[in-house]
Amino acid sequence: MNSAHRAAAVLDKQVFFVLGCQKSGTTWVQKLLDGHAQVCCDGEAYFGPLLQPLLSQALNAYHQRHKAGNAGNFNQQELRQLFAFACGLTFQRWIDASGKTDVRAVGEKTPEHALCLGELDQCFPSCRVIHIIRDGRDVCVSGYFHNLRQGGDKLRGFRGRFPDFNSYIEYTVTRHWVAYIQQARAFGVRHPQRYHELRYEQLHTEPGREIAAMLEFLGVDCDEPSIAACAEAGSFKTLTAGRERGQEDKQSFFRKGVVGDWKNHFDASNTETFMRHGGALLHELGYEA
């Protein structure tokens, strides 16, 4: 079977997307699920935020320059088919690289997909969505330290945009945390059978139960050995090459891996800023104020 046929065939598997606000545990979920023998999950391909709009722009430019008349134009449905096929090529490469021989669910993790679920839904009408939510205050702390570990021009640019923690909190809550959660949950209201929501905090306290729920949602084996394999693949010690959860490494993507770290970093001013912009959603989600 050639690559074109294989890319088309992979789209017959259960396609899913892992998403959520940045620093909410999307990479953790990706690693957990990819530990399953019947699941291939990778990222960040940015299908929705980058590939789809760039493909659309390229076709629009082509339409303006070709001389084949209307027969040379691609309509919206054909654009979606081209986009889905391009994603299928990526999925198939991931499966080939994984060495897995019985993949039944193939997934992609890009946090920003929370903002373009409508278009993804049109291109993948049977796709499933796994949305992880984390206390927004911990999101702010984790994101802030994540940016501070950058060096050179990136760090200078970050410092220029956000001279203090309060300015970063306001940006993160208004532009990311609230928007991502609200839009992903709106998809869940429209498609409850294709949407699975979990909390970062519960994945800490009851990993076996949360992993089993995700595996059942994807329609793959969820027996004890499968759950154990996922838990091992996504354990903090595995992801950090031996560190225990709570042992901080400010230069690592997986800095600390704990719940409630905001209490160590928020002062009264930070709390006021967060609550002014995200307090309503924090209460709605049931987090302690």
Would you kindly provide a brief summary of this structure?
Helix content is 57%, strand content 9%.
C-alpha end-to-end distance: 56 Å
- Got a strand count? 5
Tell me the count of domains: 1
CATH topology: Rossmann fold
State the helix count.
Answer: 13
Globular, elongated, flat, extended or rod-shaped: what is the shape? globular
In spatial order, strands of the major sheet run 2-3-1-4-5
Order of H and E elements: HEHEHHEHEHHHEHHHHH
Helix fraction bin: 55-70%
Radius of gyration: 20 Å
Largest sheet: 5 strands, parallel
Low-confidence region ranges: none
Structural class: alpha/beta
Q: What's the assembly state of these chains?
A: single chain
What is the residue-mean pLDDT, rounded to a whole number? Answer: 93
User: β content, as a range?
Assistant: 5-15%
- In CATH, the architecture is 3-Layer(aba) Sandwich
CATH class (first level) name:
Alpha Beta
